[in-house]
Amino acid sequence: MKDFTIALFAEDLSKADLDSIYNLNQANVPEVGSIANISEFQKLLHMSSYNLIAKIDDEVIGYIVCFRDKSAYGSLNYKFFSESISKFLYIDRIAIKDTYRHQGIGKKIYEQVFNKANELGLPVVCEVNTRPLNEPSLKFHRKLGFTECGTNEFSYNSVVYLKKD
Known about the structure:
By secondary structure, the chain is of the alpha+beta class. It has one domain: Gcn5-related N-acetyltransferase (GNAT) (Aminopeptidase), CATH 3.40.630.30. Helices cover 35% and strands 31% of the residues. The chain contains 5 helices and 7 strands, in the order E-H-H-E-E-H-E-H-E-H-E-E. A 7-stranded mixed sheet has the order 1-2-3-4-5-7-6, with helices on both faces. Helix 4 links the parallel strand 4 and strand 5. The longest helix has 16 residues. The N and C termini lie far apart (32 Å). 29% of the residues are buried.
């Protein structure tokens, strides 16, 4: 595999990168939530606080979108953390292109998130689907030191809430 780069990004991405990230998001539903259109995705990015994009040359191969506490984000999973933890960095969504999985890209992205959280003195929190079961993600998060801090049953899915101090 060629070397990849990881860089910060905000809602002012190039159209090509925005399209690539949006398409990668939609290709990874239900592991990440579906977003109706690019305009809604841009709104999500505008509310977020820390985002990274992984690329090989000009090809987007992965991304992560994170929120700080006290955001206006309306996600029920985000709300769980808002009601139970005063300060945090919430991983809302991460996706790696199929052909680049299991090559350390996700781990490198998470390392940068952990560095940012440590710099800010914050725990990192997220949720993982348990219905439908996302066993690879559960194993990945446990290996990185996340521990369970709650669960939730929705009509359309179930999740486990995870935290890493």
